[in-house]
Design a protein that fits this description.
The protein is α/β, with parallel strands linked by helices. The chain has helices at residues 16-27, 43-54, 78-88, 92-96, 123-130, 135-138, 143-155, 161-181, 186-215, 218-222, 229-237, and strands at 7-13, 31-37, 60-65, 114-118. Strands 2-1-3-4 form a four-stranded parallel β-sheet, sandwiched between helices. The longest helix is centred in the last third of the chain and has 30 residues, at 186-215.
Length: 240
């Protein structure tokens, strides 16, 4: 039987949790996710990269945190604002005066790149909203405070036996790497440390995906699209 051909979307993003959320949405859609992961990046780099990918054709999203706006080294530059305004058919002065979370509202025709700015502050703020926390109660909290609140929710998630089995296998590998580090050379230790960090990320991914599956089924997320514009944009990306 011929496999059904999927539509596809490009998403440029920064942050492992953003990737897990995108993977979860893809798994519940018929859209293929093409991802460009920009670890440790900036709003400037993410938007600039999304514009570059837009030149290849297809729909492209730039997915990043609102708190970049408060970091001078991570902000969108004047030159990139100019390029974005040209692509959207807007005046650069009108675009630059908008808060980052309001930028996409100016893109009336959803021209590439489409911006999804997690807020308040970060992805954690967005997900906490999805769990019924009023936006007003989250405004003004630091990204660290938001992360701690979300971690508390994730820790309450009940892992399945399959999840626990995967976690045990990862823990065995981590113990093995930690033992090997005692006898490794300096380059070898660096490699083993990277493998340990990779294992920790895999464990976090298992917990995060289970948390989404248990607390945010797709129909529940879809019910929020009229109240949370960023959710609506993400659902549209996957034709949900």
């Amino acid at each position: 039987m011929r496999k059904e051909r999927k539509n596809s979307v490009w998403v440029v993003y920064e942050g492992y949790e953003e990737g897990y959320l995108l993977e979860y949405l893809e798994a519940n859609s018929k859209v293929k996710l093409n991802r460009k992961f920009c670890s440790g990046s900036t709003a400037e780099f993410i938007v600039m990269t999304a514009m570059q990918y837009s030149d290849r054709g297809g729909t492209v999203y730039a997915f990043f945190d609102e708190d970049f706006e408060q970091l001078p080294h991570a902000q969108i530059t004047d030159e990139t604002f100019k390029s974005l305004a040209n692509r959207w058919g807007l005046k650069v002065a009108d675009l630059k005066k908008q808060p980052y979370k309001q930028l996409q509202n100016q893109n009336a025709y959803n021209r590439n790149p489409i911006l999804v700015v997690s807020n308040p502050s970060s992805l954690e703020g967005l997900i906490l909203q999805m769990h019924g926390k009023p936006r007003e109660s989250l405004e003004g909290l630091t990204t660290t405070q938001l992360k701690n609140s979300l971690d508390n929710l994730i820790d309450k998630c009940v892992l399945t036996e399959e999840d626990m089995g995967k976690m045990r296998l990862i823990d065995k590998k981590i113990i093995k790497y930690e033992h090997e580090m005692q006898h490794a050379s300096s380059p070898g230790k660096k490699y083993l440390q990277s493998r340990i960090a990779e294992g920790d990320r895999e464990k976090s991914k298992i917990k995060f995906l289970r948390f989404l599956q248990q607390t945010l089924p797709i129909d529940k997320i879809a019910s929020m699209r009229t109240d949370i514009s960023e959710i609506n944009l993400l659902l549209n990306a996957f034709h949900i």
